[in-house]
Amino acid sequence: MEFKKRKKEFKMIEKISKNLSPTKQKEQTVLEIVPSEDEITKLLRLKNGSWDNAKEPWLVYDEKQKLHALLSIDTLTKMIEHFKKAEQETLFLKLEKSILQHLPLDFQDVWTVAMEEIKKSKKNEVDFDKLVKKIKKDHPNLFLDLKDLYLPEGASIISAIER
After folding, report:
1. What pLDDT, in 10s, does the model give residues 1-11?
2. Strands 30-35 and 58-61
3. What's the pLDDT tens digit per position in 15-38?
4. d(Cα 135, Cα 12) in Å, to the nearest integer?
């Protein structure tokens, strides 16, 4: 039973390692925390891999057999930067979608106003739909208003475009 559990964990370790490291190495460094005679000291025992292996993460089992990852500060910093960049891109896409749903005449002008409003806002979470509605109310000249299009009674927008 213990072997099967370990086999699953090592498969999980391999999967995690492949996703975290672009280089392909056969050996994954796996360590185990071992208690020592001194209460304030613990030992690291090499279970798999090599002490010279630069491939990250190094995986560490604690005394309760819980799996931990050991990363360099450089790798951790890069991961955090990537997460921040991904979060920012997601927010920009949400803002872009909200702006486009309100039919801007000049997208870039609305974007600029929205970014200024976000900078002024002290909230961490911004409701982009409410923000764009506020901008549309404050700056109606930046948006297309379908009421301003004059169409004779009974005509549709599609037939007016086809002419």
Report:
1. 444 556 676 67
2. parallel
3. 666 665 554 445 788 999 998 888
4. 49
Q: Say how many residues make up the chain.
A: 163
Please give the model's pTM, rounded to 2 decimal places: 0.62
The candidate with the shortest Cα–Cα distance to 126, out of 117, 139, 137, is 117
d(CA 78, CA 75): 5
